[in-house]
Design a protein that fits this description.
The complex is a heterodimer of chains A (about 300) and B (about 280). Chain A has one domain: MetI-like fold (Orthogonal Bundle), CATH 1.10.3720.10. Chain A is built from 12 helices and no strands. In chain A, helix 7 packs across helix 9. The longest helix of chain A has about 30 residues. Chain B has 2 domains: about 30 residues, no CATH class; about 210 residues, MetI-like (MetI-like fold), CATH 1.10.3720. In chain B, strand 1 and strand 2 form a beta hairpin. In chain B, helix 1 packs across helix 12, helix 2 crosses helix 12 and helix 3 packs across helix 9. Chain B starts with a helix and ends with a helix. The chains are: A mainly alpha (about 300), B mainly alpha (about 280). Chains A and B meet through helix 1, helix 3, helix 4, helix 5 and helix 6 of A and helix 1, helix 3, helix 4, helix 5 and helix 6 of B.
């Protein structure tokens, strides 16, 4: 190829590369720099203080609660989405009548904004009051004779974060199902037929043929769901806020409060950088493994 | 006989989950349609006795008497943000995807990976520099500023969608027209672009939905009610103690409606975007 021919495509992609370079990598470095300064008021103060903000952050009780909440949320959210997603995908794969309708219903929440679902789940999980009696989900449970399951939901500091997790599971389990369905479709039909000829029953076919094929799907889903749960913000903001005693608080909400409501810019930047590090721990290995595979294409 | 019991069980579980997924939508629809005299927290599961759109009217127009803003203005803001941002984003993605799939150069895969990382970052890690930069550009608090933000942070996903789509176009078509003397732009114009409709459908529907549903950028970049998108306005409406819950719920349905309509009518392309988002080609 002539040199000019090589340069033109590069020229066309340059604006995007520069934009991402500045707005993603440049801004991340900038935030990283702020996290090492004393900037604690409306006006910037770029006096360097080393890791002081990080030290303060990890000593902060609210941040400790947030990390614990994130852990609980992430575990419940990922395990439930994987279990529900896999179950629904396997069921829908059994020549179900109305498969398309079920599938569309299960995926519908993915099209809905977190703010919308936060507002609606806020009222659904409203525990009611003595005057009103049970309302929302509690009322539904009562009518189904499941009284023992009624509780204060996000008004109860012990389980506040679980109520948020249920709303998030509502939103993302259909997505997990779609990932698994695509995975099941990728299992060669001949393999399934061969195992049937060899006398394997349905369960054995799943156990020894389909599940091994779904391992990469599960791996990818864990990473995607994990990074969503680390970043969760909109849903908490609209549904519960910080909750009593920060029981449904998360790092992203803490960062927002600290930075944009409290003007503690350096402290806020340190929360943001910790969040970024956590997400990077998940995403970078995933990107590298995808990139390595790409090199063979 | 045994098999049919299993099948009944499967259908039963599927129906139970269908109910779980439909509950919030059911509540939005029935609550929005009840009259103020009929609406009540303890009767929220009941169907409306007659149709009444008063909740929607209040959520849309607001109430000067009670002192809250409706969502109509921010609905229009969201449209003004989402339409240009979606179109620009798709065009950029298409060009980037074309280069990264058909005009690979040394390091192009690395550049692609570096761009991709941008779609996973927690945006908290860029918000303060973003605000400072937009202030410098006199774009802070404005709709064009928010469009710029969505276009830039939409580059990774739109590039990914088009690159993966163009990988399915045989490279021989490009090479053949190169032999015929077509250049970079000529090949794009005459070969690639005419084949791009499915790519544009997936990228635009994905961007439309995610920009419409965005909350964080709207909250930070456009704090003023005159230019804020509908998700931020809905959050304010729902956070206000003077707004009745049925008006909040009606507002939620109004906010959810455009993406739901897109999903109902163009769901196939929406699913395409979802799958791309998981990096599967």
């Amino acid at each position: 190829m002539k040199p000019t021919k090589r340069i033109i495509p590069i020229l066309f992609i340059m604006p995007s590369v520069i934009a991402v370079g500045v707005f993603v990598y440049g801004f991340i470095s900038w935030t990283g720099f702020i996290s090492f300064t004393k900037w604690d008021d409306v006006l910037p103060n770029y006096t360097l203080v080393g890791f002081e903000n990080y030290r303060e952050l990890f000593a902060n009780m609210r941040f400790q609660i947030d990390l614990r909440n994130t852990l609980i949320f992430t575990v419940i959210f990922i395990i439930s989405c994987l279990a529900i997603g896999l179950l629904l995908a396997i069921f829908l794969d059994q020549n179900i009548k109305g498969k398309g309708i079920f599938q569309n219903l299960f995926l519908l929440p993915m099209a809905i904004s977190f703010v919308v679902s936060g507002v609606v789940w806020h009222w659904l999980f409203n525990p009611g009051s003595i005057q009103l009696g049970n309302i929302g989900i509690n009322q539904l449970l009562e009518k189904l004779g499941l009284n023992f399951l009624t509780c204060g939901w996000y008004t109860d500091p012990k389980i506040g974060i679980i109520a948020v997790a249920i709303a998030a599971i509502w939103q993302f389990s259909g997505y997990t199902m779609a990932l698994y369905l695509a995975g099941i479709r990728g299992v060669p039909v001949e393999l399934q037929e061969a195992s049937a000829i060899d006398g394997a029953n349905k369960w054995q076919t799943f156990r020894y043929i389909i599940f091994p094929f779904l391992r990469p799907v599960t791996f990818g889903a864990i990473i995607l769901l994990g990074h969503i749960s680390l970043k969760i913000f909109d849903l908490v903001m609209a549904m519960t806020g910080t909750g009593p005693a920060f029981s449904s608080d998360v790092p992203a909400l803490f960062m927002y409060d600290t930075t944009f409501r409290g003007n503690h810019f350096a402290q806020g930047a340190s929360i943001a950088i910790i969040l970024l590090l956590l997400v990077s721990l998940l995403i970078i290995p995933y990107l590298i493994s995808t990139f390595r595979k790409e090199a063979w294409r | 006989m045994k098999i049919s019991i299993t099948r009944i069980l499967i259908y039963l579980i599927l129906v139970l989950f269908a109910i779980f997924y439909i509950i919030p939508v059911y509540i939005m629809v029935v609550t929005g349609m009840k009259s103020f005299s009929e609406v009540g927290l303890s009767t929220m599961w009941n169907l409306p006795r007659s149709l009444n759109f008063e909740s929607f009217r209040l959520a849309w127009l607001g109430s000067a008497k009670e002192g809250f803003r409706g969502l109509s203005g921010s609905f229009l803001n969201s449209l003004q943000i989402v339409i240009p941002a979606t179109i620009i984003s798709a065009i950029l993605g298409s060009l980037n995807g074309y280069v990264l799939s058909k005009w690979r150069f040394y390091g192009s895969n690395l550049i692609f990976t570096i761009i991709l990382f941008g779609m996973f970052i927690p945006y908290q890690s860029i918000l303060v520099p973003l605000v400072l930069t937009l202030e410098k550009l006199h774009a802070y608090g404005t709709i064009p500023g928010l469009i710029l933000v969505h276009v830039i942070y939409g580059i990774p996903i739109s590039t990914l969608i088009f690159r993966n789509y163009y990988l399915t176009v045989p490279i021989e078509m490009v090479q053949a027209s190169e032999v015929d003397g077509a250049n970079f732009l000529g090949i794009y114009r005459w070969i690639i672009f005419p084949l791009s409709t499915p790519g544009f459908a997936v990228a635009m529907i994905w961007q439309f939905t995610s920009i419409w549903n965005d909350f964080l950028f709207g909250l930070i970049v456009t704090p003023n009610p005159a230019s804020q998108p509908i998700t931020v306005a809905l959050n304010n409406l729902a956070g206000s103690y003077i707004v009745q819950w049925n008006v909040q719920i009606a507002g939620a349905l109004l906010t959810a409606l455009p993406p739901i309509l897109v999903y109902i009518f163009l769901g196939k392309f929406f699913l395409g975007g979802l799958m791309q988002g998981s990096l599967k080609g």
